[in-house]
Amino acid sequence: ATIRLRAAVAVAIVMLANTSSVSSFTSFATFYQTSSVDKRLAFASSINEKNHDLPMRQSFTLKSPSALNMAEAEEKDYISPMRQRPRPKGGDTAYTNENILRQLRYYNDIRKVGGKDCVQDLYVRDPNTVGDSVRFWFVGKVARCVSQELAIAKLFNLIEEHATRIRPIELGRSFGSLEIYVAPGDTELLTSQNDPGVRLQKAERFVEGVEKVALLEVGLNLEILTNEGAGFCIVRTEDGVVPPHMIG
């Protein structure tokens, strides 16, 4: 109904604008501003069908493309500005579906060959906690053919942004300054049981030589929240070890 109203009104305006009667156009403007939608549609439609018996200039012809078709074409061609956002920054490690799925394939390929010995669990420190009660949020796993330091540095942007996506309240405001920690692969159960033998190690954001690492040498399996968004986190000291009062 909205499209029909707009189209019919467009025709009415064109016809009234081409008439020699200024008062007709003024009356129509007043009517349009003070009437309901139904009355506007009925009136504009009647003008479109009957030409309103107004003296038209010779230059105007009904053989021209109708305003209805023009309005419908504009409606179909309209693209919301929200769909025209630029691609995220970061190149091959920007947070895009294409990059995430590619690194997941590499993760599976590397793990098939190297097993869990080439895998590290990834945690991100909650910057709002300190002392012996620092929370570390589990965000995924990395598989690598290079050193641990180079692997994390290569994928740092993907890991950090994913952390802010799954923990927007705790981590979202700290994008660009978050700290990533690693633990031995597949040790989630041990860390949840506060095993003192599993210690978190901080990974550096920038490592020399990272530009030489190929994407197929590092894989990433990002965490997907399935427990109603609760996620998985552990409490450690600022050094990444289990607080004494939590052992035993």
The amount of helix comes to 25-40%
Shape: elongated
Number of extended strands: 6
Mean pLDDT across all residues, rounded?
A: 81
Q: Main beta sheet, described?
A: 6 strands, antiparallel
Strand content: 5-15%
Write up this protein.
The chain is of the alpha+beta class and 248 residues long. The radius of gyration is 32 Å and the shape is elongated. Strands 1, 2, 3, 4, 5 and 6 form a 6-stranded antiparallel β-sheet that branches. Helices cover 40% and strands 14% of the residues. β1 and β2 (134-144) form a beta hairpin. The protein is built from 9 helices and 6 strands; from the N terminus they run αααααββαααβαβββ. α1 (2-17) crosses α3 and α1 packs across α4.
How would the blueprint of this fold be written?
Blueprint: H1 2-17, H2 22-34, H3 37-50, H4 67-77, H5 97-114, E1 119-125, E2 134-144, H6 148-154, H7 156-166, H8 168-171, E3 180-184, H9 188-192, E4 201-203, E5 218-222, E6 233-236
Antiparallel strand pairs: 1-2, 1-3, 2-5, 2-6, 3-4
